[in-house]
Each structure stands twice: as structure tokens, then as C-alpha cells.
Amino acid sequence: MSARRRTLLKVIVLGDSGVGKTSLMNQYVHKRFSHQYKATIGADFVTKELQIDDRLITLQIWDTAGQERFQGLGVAFYRGADCCVQVYDVNVMRSFDNLDTWHEEFLKQANPSDPKTFPFILLGNKIDIDGGNSRVVSEKKAKEWCSSKGDIPYYETSAKEDINVDAAFLCIAKTALANEHEQDIYFQGIPEASPDSEQRGGCAC
């Protein structure tokens, strides 16, 4: 058996429309930035492979639509997530104010086994705009919000200038992996299903 284990981690990216979710993902996976804004319809995902210690990780990063008319799609996309990344624009107070709503909505729809310990990460994006002069959400305010949610990690990013993007996603991968390890505890000793009979989700008890 190979010493390397390949692990698929599902990461959900949430936040208001226009905060830069798609741009962050494209910068991280494809190393490119587009000035043209195109709203995500429904949801889309990209994958990125990386190695953490002896584990080969495939990050499956889901980009969800920020518009409210698509929020009903949440259940299908959120289930089975290993980590949730919340993104806001440091220059738009409304996108910060809506973090609580996104947070609660995710927990309600994803229904993780232990909502208090489920891993979240917060990204304050677009720190490059106007040299930082137009920002309205301070780093202190963002960190206070993170503390109120159980000390979740926080990064300030710029998808355009590629600031902190790799560091943030590495933290996301490590956080998701730690959560996945904890999930493993529950499944020790259970024989793995063969691929053709594999079922996702719970067991018929």
C-alpha cells in the first residue's frame, strides 16, 4: 500500500455577490485575474492538488452564487463540506454585515454533526483597492467577528495582486484536513465499500 494517502476535501466559498469569490479561486488555481465581472450562476467548482506532509490533497473548491435567488440551492452544494470559507469586501460594509446570515444559513443547510467545531475561515478581500484608503471594515473589527465565532482564522487578501491567496488556501486545506481526520475516527474498523457499491452519506441503521 502506498505511504501516500489521497484525500478529497470539499470546500465551500460563501459571501455576497461581487466580493471576489470567483477571482480568489481563479488566482489560486489558475494564477490569473480577470477585470471583467461575471456573476456565478448557481454554483461551480475548481480543483487543485497539493501535498501536506505525506498526504496528497485534492481540494474541490465550490464557488457559490452570492445572489439571494440562488440561495435555495444551498443544501445540495453544502452537504459533505469539510470547510467553509466566508469572503467579504473590506470596502463594502454590507458584505461584512451579511457574514452572520451566510454563517447561519450554511450551518442550517449543511447540518454538520457538530456545528460548534465545524471549520470556517474568513477572508477580507480587495485590500488593494485605492491603496487601502477606501476600506470601511478594519482588521480589528474582522478579528472581533472571528473571535465571536470561536476564533476562526482570518486573512486579508487581494485576488488582483495575489496577496495572501496561497497562504489562505493552504490554511483552508490544513483546516479541512484536520476536520477530515476527526471524521475518520468514526469510521475506523468499518470495511470500505467497493467502488461500484459505494454510497455517500449515512448508514441504514
Could you please describe the fold and organization of this structure?
It is a lipid-anchor. This protein is an alpha/beta fold. The protein has one domain (6-189): 3-Layer(aba) Sandwich (Rossmann fold), CATH 3.40.50.300. It is built from 6 helices and 6 strands; from the N terminus they run βαββαβααβαβα. It has helices at residues 21-30, 74-78, 93-97, 99-110, 139-148, 165-187, and strands at residues 5-14, 43-52, 55-64, 83-89, 120-125, 154-156. The protein has a 6-stranded mixed sheet, with helices on both faces. α5 (139-148) links the parallel β5 and β6 (154-156). The longest helix is centred in the C-terminal third of the chain and has 23 residues, at 165-187. The radius of gyration is 17 Å and the shape is globular. The chain starts with a strand and ends in an 18-residue tail after the last helix.
Topology:
Layout: E1 5-14, H1 21-30, E2 43-52, E3 55-64, H2 74-78, E4 83-89, H3 93-97, H4 99-110, E5 120-125, H5 139-148, E6 154-156, H6 165-187
Parallel strand pairs: 1-3, 1-4, 4-5, 5-6
Antiparallel strand pairs: 2-3
Q: Calculate Rg over CA atoms.
A: 17 Å
CATH topological fold name: Rossmann fold
Query: Which second-level CATH architecture applies?
Result: 3-Layer(aba) Sandwich
Summed up, the domain count is: 1
Total number of helical segments?
A: 6
- For the record, what CATH class applies? Alpha Beta
Spatial ordering of strands, largest sheet: 2-3-1-4-5-6
> How would the global form be characterised?
globular
Span of the ends, CA to CA: 31 Å
How many β-strand runs? Answer: 6
Give the percentage of residues in beta strands: 15-25%
Low-confidence stretches: 185-205
Question: What structural category characterises the helix and strand content?
Answer: alpha/beta
Helix content: 25-40%
Biggest β-sheet strands, sense, barrel: 6 strands, mixed
CATH homologous superfamily annotation: P-loop containing nucleotide triphosphate hydrolases
The run of helices and strands is: EHEEHEHHEHEH
Organism: Cuscuta campestris
Protein name: Ras-related protein Rab7
Subcellular location: Endomembrane system; Plastid
Family: Belongs to the small GTPase superfamily. Rab family.
